[in-house]
Amino acid sequence: MNRGQKDEQAPNGSFSPSFRQAAWIMAGILMAMLAYQALTRDLDDRVRIEYSTFRRHLKDGKVARITVTGEEITGELSVAATREVGDESVEYTHFLTYLPPFGDDELLGLLERHGTTMQVEPDTGVRLHEVFIAALPWILMIGIAIMIMRRMQAQGQSMFSIGKTRVRLFDASKSTVRFDDVAGAHGAKSELQEMVGFLDDPQRFQRVGARTPKGILLVGAPGTGKTLLARAVAGEAGVPFLSITGSDFMEMFVGVGASRVRDTFREAKKRAPSIIFIDELDSIGRRRGAGLGGGHDEREQTLNQLLSELDGFEPSENVLVMAATNRPDTLDPALLRPGRFDRRITVDLPTQADRVAILQIHVRNRPLDDDVNLEEVARGMPGATGADLENIVNEAAMEAARRQAEKICAADIERARDKVLLGMKRETMVLSEQECQLIAYHEAGHAVTAAVLEYADPLYKVSIVPRAESMGVTQQVPERDMYVRPRQYLDDRLAVIMSGRAAEELVLQIVSTGAENDFREATQIARKMVLDWGMGQKLGPMTRSGGRDEVFLGGELAQRREFSEATAREVDEEVRDILTGAQHRALETLKAHRPALERLAASLREQEELSGEMVLQIIQESADAVPEQTVEGIPGDTRPSSGPA
What we know:
Rossmann fold, five-stranded mixed sheet
């Protein structure tokens, strides 16, 4: 960006320096004209008098000569006269007056009768200040138009180039991202490395008749590293790399999006072989005809042009198109067919080993204390994306800086993890004694059930510190990443979720609103068990039909339900039976481990946060204090109650 463009982008919405300079120039011109007018008025010794006074001087024979210019009459008296101006008397011989609009038929006769010399001048009607006053609105309008056009030019949107592309040519020499800087996503990296190899040595593939894919679509959840992979391709590929976002094609003017698509591919063809990267493809590639809109809006016209450029009548030779999206379900089927996007690369969530590698990349320039175990940190972040891990490492560094430490310790990472996953502590919230007791028993119920059930995830932490929208939390972390979950795991999971309400009923004989989120999560799991996973006792191995391909908000309202009202009633009954059974199982589990529940609730009231190891120790000590007994009345659990699984 040049200096002129920088000047146009004034911060905080203020006027740009160029506009302020033009405003000062116009103000200076106006002041100069007013000063000139005042100066000429001071130099002129003519005194303005009434027309009646002029007629009286004329009848008295005192007017020697006059000059008539339009309706203006100036003249000279043969004898000086006086005129009261304020508190002073002014003597004058030259005067100025104006002919009345209705005229004066006797004026010419009076002039001839008294021998007054009369001179007539043509009225040009042009006076400098009057011209400026008339032209001032036009000057302001032209100045505002110039300012708008210059600002549009500074943003690449001039009136004559609004259809030009906003694509940015990536400078590979300034790139600091390579494939070695991207941890995890091994499958995606190998596919993209193959594309880079084809661009470096196309003859190796062409000898066996292979051709480069025309399009590569990166699909993955937000934060999984799709754009980072594209930056790595830009740094590794030895060809021009042009990047643009889907929203850069869209404009309020009709036809601009299609024009920008054509211009983008025209620029890429000039530099072929080259790569075009379109981020957030779903902003222009959304399915046509979806929702309530028509078929001629700007987005659909832009998509039609993109389809034509990808694989139309005039093919784009030696131009590879990469795109990224986290909403592949909304894309138009014509955009996904082979010949346009030949390869669809899924960028999955990182595994535990990938999370360790990602953390190692983010901490390599940060000093770590000896108590930091990146494997434990990665295990405690199941389902986290690369962006989440980077954010946690950065928050941990800020925590260390707040306490003026030279290294990041494990406690800093733990606090950063809680802040990112659970939210900020609500320091100003003051809870009553009854509320603290209720929350402690609620979370203790979750913790005890999670610790003693066989298939439940291992307990990580229990806290009754209010954060964000929660009054407390019980965190469970799986020992490894799970991709297939058995029925026993789901039953234990539901029992753990329902045990918070069960603890309230068992110990305090009350129910509260604290189980709202528990019921919501449990109901969602139970409905999936019945409708999606075929685990219902009455319905058996059936699933709800009808795809989930809605592409607009509220699409599920119009989705066709392919089962009857009677079946829907049975689904509701099965969901209710599953949830009721889970609550009964949680209640019986807590009855069998009542001493552990009481001791754990008391420890939570005292310390507010307990680690998983501390919870297991409390449960073990409580079990050693009473005789061993089996847990009766709990389906699927015949283990002794003396300790956790």
